[in-house]
Every structure is written in C-alpha cells, then in structure tokens.
C-alpha cells in the first residue's frame, strides 16, 4: 500500500479519537447543564467559554495521547498493547483533568469523574480496536505489505523465507531480495529470491529500494560480522524495523520475548530505547533548566568572563567544531581556559597539569565551569544536559580505528555531562577516551529520563567535591 494511503489511515485513527472524545465530553457537559443547575441567563462570554470547552477538551486528549507516542502507523500496532496503553493513559489523562481547576467543577460533581473515565475509555478503546482490526485484516489478506530485505543466504535464511511466504495469513513482509554475509549461498534460496547486492552496500540498497523492514537470518559462524552490519543499519536516518532470528541458546536463557501469537520467532531490535514521551520530557527539561540557569546565574557568567579576560590576552569564549547527532558538526561554546594558539602544532588533548592552561583556566577545568556556555548549545538543540561528550572529527577518527562501536554514540545528542564524564572524567589520550567509551555505550543502551536525573545528581556531587579529572 502506498505511503500516502497509510498516512491517511493514521489520520483517520486520530480523527476517531477526536470524535470519540468530543461525543463523550458533549454528553457529560449536557448532564452538567441539566442536573447541576446551569445558568441559562449566563453572559455571552460565559456561553462562548462553555462552547469552547467542547473543542479544547478533545484537543487536550489528542495532544496528551501524542505526548505518549500513541499515534504511530496503525498497521504496526498491536491491539492488545494498544488496549492496555489506552487504559493506563486514560487514567493519567482523567487525573490531570481532575486536578486542573478549569475542568474540576464538572468532574467532581456527584460521581461524574468515574463515569467520565469509564465512558471515555470505552469510546476510545472501541474506535481504536475497530480501526486496528480492519488494518490487521488488510495485512493478513496481503493488501498491505512492507518492503523487506532479507540479510542472510544460507539454510536458515531459506527456512525463514519459506515460513513467511507459505503462510495463508500474511505477516506483512514484501521480501524484495536478499544480501549474503560471507559469500556462501543456499541453492534453494537463490532459486526463489533475487540477490540484490552485497552486504557492504546494504545502506545504499535500503535507500534505493525504500526498505522498511530488515530480517536477519544468519548462521552461527557469521555472528562476528553481525556487529558491523548492525552499526551500518543503526546509522541510517530513515525509519527502519530490524528483526533477527534468535539462537536456541538465547531462547533457553529467556532473552526472547514473544512478539506475535503466530508467525516466525523473531526478536525486534529496538533502535530507539527511550520512548517518545520521555524524549519530549527530556527536551523540555533541557530547555527549562538551561534557561533558568542562565537567567539566575547571569552574575556568575559575568564574573567568570571578567576573570578569563584578566587571565591572559584573547577572547572570553572559545569556539570549536564538534561532531553531534548523526555526525552533524556544530560549534561548541566554552569559556577559554588556555592561552591563544594553544593548538598551533595540531589537535592535542588536555591533561592534568597542562601548561597550555592559564591559572584561572586550570581552576575552571577542575570545577568544570568552563562548560557553562554550553547551556546555550542545549537551548539551540545541538546538545542535551546529559549525553556523551562531543568530540572533534580528528579524535573520532582516531578512536574508531581501535573502537569502531564509537559510532553508536552519534545516535543521540551529545551532552554537557555524561556517565563517562562522571565515572571516568576527562580523557587525556585516545586510550583513555576508549576506556571512557564503555560507560557512554552503557548509557546509550540503557538511557531513560530517570537515568538522566541520576547522572545529573552525580555530576553535582563531582562539582561539589571538585573532583573533575
């Protein structure tokens, strides 16, 4: 099905929510008007406000569900998961409306709050499940399928292809072809499916064929090459669903969770670990904290600027190109802690006792206050409060020579502070940067808003102790 038609399905899904929320709220407004003594002689302004309630309450629900990432492609949504998420989010939404002064007059009248929750949940759940059932039937009939690439060329890949294509009820995979890993190819597979390229060109293949799903079915001896393949897939900017056949060892260890009641056993590899609502909350938190810090501590910025100016000739701020999200360069801001032309002989990492630092610069680096101008980078959206420290392209090349998995850090925004910065501190050599990398990889693979708060707490402890390396 064309992308435009699938977007139309999503818009209908959102419209269904809006209509359901509007009808339920209209019914409860009518009940309030008739039983709670609505004043028929109220002013025109009050009447307009009451009519507006019929609009902005449904709009509130749409924005609320959007915040919790409810509006994704309906053809990829699970009905059971949607039902459970709808129940939980409706509880949270009704609680928020209850505590809002604008709406509490209606919701606290008699037992309106409980009835409103029940009818709102039933209406939203019914319209959603109806819509998802229709889309689910389209997938099973084969009317809707996603362009799919099979990675693997041995017997395991052929078995997966057979299981998918021989099913009476389709799973939504339109397998366009395969790419091999080690050059060894199953005769059975080559007879039923076209080879559309080499593994080295998988990124360009995905772009050319507009691939949405990647199924990985490789043999055990091909596992050493899997990391390289995954790195390439994760670096792609397009939306991509990656699934892999687990080994029996993984199943016995309980690593495999059942994704569907029917179909091949596949593990879906999550590219985005942090849910959308947490990413939105993280961004709002970044902006709020950065703006408040700059506003409240403007005098500290002024004091540091004066000290920098008096410490040695040169500008107050130091600007340097760093590599950010998805490899995009940006200009980072710092209070200058070194003498001018400190890197006239080429890029060089700073170290404890570095004679290129001014006396005031050494103090700033100990307490990390030279990083304070980066709150402006956070407001601009180039950085976050928490994330791997951004590096220069020169040093990224050096690190990736010995640690190719460094590219994982470019999947998220860099930060003012990081788990690696807290646990390891400043790195003075490429070897130390590689050692610090393991902490940042740990953060990338387990990131959450709660973890960000934990890292910020430990950063404050480091600053209080003045133990910045």
Describe the structure.
- By secondary structure, the protein is an alpha/beta fold.
- The chain has helices spanning 3-35, 44-67, 79-99, 104-107, 112-141, 155-165, 187-192, 202-208, 226-234, 248-252, 276-296, 298-311, 359-367, 374-380, 393-402, 419-423, 430-446, 449-465, and strands at 146-151, 173-180, 195-198, 213-216, 241-244, 267-269, 317-323, 329-335, 384-386, 415-417.
- It has three domains: 3-141, no CATH class; 146-269, NAD(P)-binding Rossmann-like Domain (Rossmann fold, 3-Layer(aba) Sandwich), CATH 3.40.50; 276-465, no CATH class.
- It contains 18 helices and ten strands.
- Strands 3-2-1-4-5-6 form a six-stranded mixed beta sheet. Strands 7-8 form a two-stranded antiparallel ribbon. The chain has a two-stranded parallel sheet with strand order 9-10.
- The radius of gyration is 28 Å and the shape is flat.
List keywords for this structure.
469 residues, Rossmann fold, 3 domains, six-stranded mixed β-sheet, two-stranded antiparallel sheet, 10% strand, flat
Question: What layout of secondary structure does this protein have?
Answer:
Elements: H1 3-35, H2 44-67, H3 79-99, H4 104-107, H5 112-141, E1 146-151, H6 155-165, E2 173-180, H7 187-192, E3 195-198, H8 202-208, E4 213-216, H9 226-234, E5 241-244, H10 248-252, E6 267-269, H11 276-296, H12 298-311, E7 317-323, E8 329-335, H13 359-367, H14 374-380, E9 384-386, H15 393-402, E10 415-417, H16 419-423, H17 430-446, H18 449-465
Parallel strand pairs: 1-2, 1-4, 2-3, 4-5, 9-10
Antiparallel strand pairs: 5-6, 7-8
């Amino acid at each position: 099905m064309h992308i435009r038609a699938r977007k139309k399905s999503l818009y209908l899904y959102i419209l269904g929510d809006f209509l359901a929320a509007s009808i339920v709220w209209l019914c409860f407004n009518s009940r309030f008007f008739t039983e709670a003594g609505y004043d028929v002689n109220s002013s025109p302004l009050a009447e307009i406000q009451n009519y507006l309630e019929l609009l902005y309450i449904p709009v509130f629900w749409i924005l609320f569900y959007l915040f919790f990432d409810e509006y994704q492609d309906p053809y990829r949504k699970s009905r059971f998961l949607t039902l459970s998420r709808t129940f939980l989010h409706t509880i949270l939404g009704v609680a928020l409306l209850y505590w809002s002064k604008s709406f509490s007059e209606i919701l606290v009248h008699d037992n309106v709050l409980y009835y409103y929750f029940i009818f709102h949940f039933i209406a939203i759940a019914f319209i959603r499940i109806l819509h998802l059932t229709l889309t689910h039937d389209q997938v099973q009939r084969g009317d809707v399928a996603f362009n799919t690439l099979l990675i693997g060329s041995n017997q395991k890949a052929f078995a997966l292809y057979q299981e998918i294509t021989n099913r009476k009820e389709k799973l939504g995979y339109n397998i366009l072809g395969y790419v091999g890993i080690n050059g060894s190819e199953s005769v059975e597979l080559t007879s039923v499916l076209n080879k559309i390229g080499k593994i080295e060109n998988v990124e360009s293949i995905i772009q050319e064929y507009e691939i949405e799903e990647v199924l990985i079915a490789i043999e055990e001896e091909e596992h050493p090459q899997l990391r390289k393949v995954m790195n390439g897939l994760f670096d792609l900017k397009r939306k991509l669903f990656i699934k892999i056949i687990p080994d029996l060892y993984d199943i016995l260890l309980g690593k495999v969770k059942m994704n569907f009641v029917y179909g091949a056993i596949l593990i879906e590899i999550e590219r985005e670990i942090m849910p959308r609502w947490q990413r939105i909350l993280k961004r709002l938190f970044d902006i709020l904290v950065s703006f408040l810090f700059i506003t409240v501590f403007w005098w500290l910025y002024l004091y540091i600027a004066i000290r920098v100016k008096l410490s040695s000739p040169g500008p107050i701020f130091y600007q340097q190109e760093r590599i950010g999200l998805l490899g995009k360069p940006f200009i980072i801001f710092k209070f200058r802690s070194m003498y001018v032309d400190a890197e006239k002989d080429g890029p060089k990492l700073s170290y404890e006792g570095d004679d290129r630092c001014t006396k005031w610069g050494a103090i700033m680096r100990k307490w990390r206050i030279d990083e304070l101008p980066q709150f402006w980078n956070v407001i601009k959206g180039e950085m976050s409060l928490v994330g791997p420290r951004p590096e220069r392209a020169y040093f990224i090349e050096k690190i990736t020579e010995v640690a190719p998995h460094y590219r994982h850090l470019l999947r998220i925004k860099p930060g003012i502070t990081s788990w690696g910065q807290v646990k390891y501190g400043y790195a003075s050599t490429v070897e130390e940067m590689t050692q610090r990398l393991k902490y940042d990889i740990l953060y990338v693979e387990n990131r959450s808003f709660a973890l960000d708060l934990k890292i910020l707490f430990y950063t404050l402890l480091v600053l209080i102790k003045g133990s910045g390396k």
